[in-house]
């Protein structure tokens, strides 16, 4: 399972559940989408990525999950996605 986190400042981080590192900077890549990046990450197809990598687990709010091709967007109790502007853009949401 791949998780997407968003900080209060709009920084996005990708983390593979259970791994010892995470990727940041996806909000700076034009045309990038969580679904495409998660699929590539699941296949370890990241040789051409130019993202920063940090040890540990990212901070911020969990805003989406990708599991074996299935995308789940985290929503509040009213059904509204909790993602901010950067997260919505990366998730392809209006």
Which secondary structure elements does this structure contain, and how are they paired or packed?
Elements (H helix, E strand, L loop, with lengths): L1 E5 L5 E5 L4 E4 L9 H9 L9 E4 L5 E7 L2 E4 L11 H7 L3
SS element count, helices: 2
Poorly predicted ranges: none
Radius of gyration: 12 Å
Strand order of the largest sheet: 4-3-2-1-5-6
Helix content: 10-25%
Task: Give the tally of β-strands.
Answer: 6
Secondary structure class reads alpha+beta
Quick one: overall form? globular
Question: H/E element string?
Answer: EEEHEEEH
Largest sheet: 6 strands, antiparallel
Question: What amount of the residues lies in strands?
Answer: 25-35%
Summarize model confidence as the mean pLDDT.
94
Oligomer: single chain
N/C terminus separation: 24 Å
Key terms for this structure?
6-stranded antiparallel β-sheet, globular, 2 helices, 94 residues, 6 strands, 31% strand, alpha+beta, single chain
Description:
This protein is of the alpha+beta class and 94 residues long. Helices cover 17% and strands 31% of the residues. The protein has 2 helices and 6 strands, in the order βββαβββα. The protein has helices spanning 34-42, 85-91, and strands at 2-6, 12-16, 21-24, 52-55, 61-67, 70-73. It has a 6-stranded antiparallel sheet with strand order 4-3-2-1-5-6. A hairpin with a 2-residue loop joins β5 (61-67) and β6. The longest helix is centred in the middle third of the chain and has 9 residues, at 34-42. The protein is globular.
């Amino acid at each position: 399972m791949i998780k997407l986190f968003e900080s209060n400042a709009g920084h996005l981080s990708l983390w593979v559940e259970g791994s010892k590192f995470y990727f940041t900077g996806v909000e700076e890549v034009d045309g990038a989408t969580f679904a495409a990046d998660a699929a590539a990450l699941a296949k370890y197809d990241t040789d051409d990525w130019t993202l920063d990598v940090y040890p540990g687990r990212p901070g911020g709010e969990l805003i989406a999950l990708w599991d074996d091709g299935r995308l789940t967007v985290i929503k509040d109790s009213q059904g509204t996605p909790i993602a901010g502007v950067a997260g919505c853009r990366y998730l392809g949401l209006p």
